[in-house]
Amino acid sequence: MIDWKKYDPMNPPQHWKVYLVTNGKRVISAYLDSDKVNGQQWWEEDQEYLFTGVTHYAEINLPNQRER
Hints:
It contains no helices and 6 strands. A 6-stranded antiparallel sheet has the order 1-6-2-3-4-5, with no helix packed on it. A hairpin with a 5-residue loop joins strand 4 (about 40-45) and strand 5. The protein has strands at about 5, 20, 25-35, 40-45, 50, 55-60.
């Protein structure tokens, strides 16, 4: 089961770390970035596209080789 956390822009997760994120329609891997002009923005990990409307995120925790 995925441990989803509600995204709170006032208390954001770690920047530049890849998470699973959703906007209620899609689930993708993305990272959070920010700048002075645009504020906080989620970017798709592979395609470098802005992903808007993020409502929830989850840490990615894959099993290591020994657990398989």
